[in-house]
Design brief:
The chain is an alpha/beta fold. Helices cover 31% and strands 20% of the residues. The protein contains 13 helices and 17 strands. The strands form 2 sheets. Strands 1, 10, 11, 12, 13, 14, 15, 16 and 17 form a 9-stranded mixed sheet that branches. An 8-stranded parallel β-barrel has the order 2-3-4-5-6-7-8-9, surrounded by 5 helices. Helix 2 packs parallel to helix 9 and helix 8 runs parallel beside helix 9. It starts with 9 loop residues before the first helix and ends with a helix. The structure holds pyridoxal-5'-phosphate. Pyridoxal-5'-phosphate (PLP) binds next to loops. Pyridoxal-5'-phosphate binds next to loops.
């Protein structure tokens, strides 16, 4: 079981919504910091352990600055993400560039920042050499193909576009060493939102065994292995989080069993978790603005899939609660929907919920309708937003440990939407 809490009461939320109208994302800084501390404590069994937070999960420099203060690095996959890491003061080898089909300008920027570059393919050795030059430290991404099962979101590894095959990897390290590279890392990422502890331990085993094979075949002693991201969170209340101690403890045991006596006892562990770092500590805060009863009963929110697309994209479950009605019986069955002209814009389908009231029911309160909280939206939430259908993405608020709230990204405006158009040119255009 996982508890689904929201840090503010209905009254506090009504007060906050006077300054910051819904919809908005709210992140809980204290809870994020506590979670990162628990993770770091568990992984302290590995000297040199680094978690490079996957910036794509929550690309806000205020959040990155908090994570950096807690000792995390950044995992980037684009030029803007490299710039975000830099803005947050994350520098040098605290940054990892794990990109694919990488343009030259990203390699050049990564070199400038002193980031660890993680190559996605053997042909990128020459590409990097010719564009940005080869650094002293290089990591390579491994695709285990049929050796490892994937999962629903990421698919089967042998059908995935990422990484080197096993043979290519062995050759790749030889080539890199010949070209003067001095330090080496190995990376893989084979699943997404996977809640099985054993699955992640097996990924560790795979990488530790491969590190030994690489050393035996090429003489290259890896400095680190990066387990990637893909650690799931319990979106459903009946699911259970993987405990940091179980994960780190299990990996430590395998590390000892596989690497003792191989000369790789000091192999450092890196991770690139995004979702389990911030996911449970962010909420999409919305309000019910319409209600319609046709063949099904619908609650219409002031947010839509442009704010949070996981349910529409993957049929993903996000828990929903109604502040002030936490203990009310779930007497209704609703489809909770957004305003996009796509029928899959549904945050929940046939969900049992307490009776939800729209604006007219609460005339005393500005805005009026019940707040509807969409849980576990702190990763791959606002970040995946888009402007299709002329939808403007909502802003982001941060609940600070003392209880104050600051806006860390304002909502988009119509001016933002038109910013890439040459309106002047349009008037001249016939
Ligand atoms: C998306 C991604 C991550 C982060 O995944 P989470 O599920 O958020 O932990 C890490 N590394 C790479 C290469 C990714 O593509």
């Amino acid at each position: 079981m996982s508890e689904k809490n929201f840090p503010l009461t209905r009254q506090e939320l009504a007060e906050l919504a006077k300054t910051y109208p819904t919809p908005f994302y709210l992140y809980d800084e204290g809870a994020i910091r506590e979670n990162v501390r628990a993770m770091k404590k568990a992984f302290a069994v590995f000297p040199g352990f680094t978690e490079h937070f996957a910036v794509k999960a929550l690309p806000n420099p205020f959040i990155l600055k908090i994570l950096a203060a807690e000792g995390l690095g950044a995992d980037c996959s684009s030029l803007p993400e490299l710039l975000l890491a830099d803005m947050a003061g994350i520098r040098g080898e605290r940054i990892m560039l794990t990109a694919n089909e990488t343009p030259a300008r990203e390699y050049i920027k990564a070199r400038e920042l002193g980031a660890i570059i993680n190559l996605d393919d053997r042909t990128h050795i020459e590409f990097l050499e010719k564009t940005a030059g080869l650094p002293e430290l290089i990591s390579c991404r491994y695709n285990p193909g049929p050796l490892k099962e994937g999962n629903a979101i990421i698919g089967k590894p042998e059908e995935a576009k990422y990484g080197f095959t096993r043979e290519q990897l062995i050759d790749g390290y030889r080539t890199l060493r010949q070209k003067g590279v001095k330090r080496f890392g190995l990376h893989t990422m084979v699943a997404s939102n996977e809640l099985s502890l054993d699955y992640h331990l097996e990924t560790g085993r795979l990488l530790f065994e491969l590190a030994v094979e690489i050393k035996n075949k090429t003489g290259v002693a890896l400095e680190f292995v990066n387990l990637g991201g893909g650690l799931g969170i319990p979106y459903r209340p009946d699911q259970e989080a993987v405990r940091w101690e179980d994960l780190a403890g299990g990996l430590k045991k395998l590390h000892g069993e596989i690497l003792t006596g191989t000369g790789l006892e000091g192999l450092v562990i890196h991770t690139e978790y995004g979702r389990p770092i911030t996911g449970p500590y962010g909420w999409l805060v919305t309000r019910a603005i319409h209600k319609k009863d046709i063949y099904r009963n619908y609650i219409g929110l002031d947010a839509c899939m442009a704010d949070l697309m996981r349910p529409a994209l993957y049929g993903a479950y996000h828990h929903i609660t109604v502040p002030g009605k936490e203990h009310a019986p779930p007497t209704e069955t609703y489809d909770v929907v957004g305003s996009l002209c796509e029928n899959n814009d549904k945050f929940a389908v046939q969900r049992r919920l307490p009776k939800i009231d729209v604006a007219a029911a609460n005339p005393g309160e500005a805005g009026g309708g019940d707040f509807v909280i969409i849980h576990d939206a702190g990763a791959h939430g606002r970040a995946m937003g888009f402007n299709y259908n002329g939808k403007l993405r909502c802003g982001e608020l941060l609940l600070r440990p003392g209880g104050s709230v600051v806006q860390i990204r304002r909502p988009e405006t119509v001016e933002d939407y038109f910013a890439t158009l040459d309106v002047e040119g349009l008037t001249q255009f016939h």
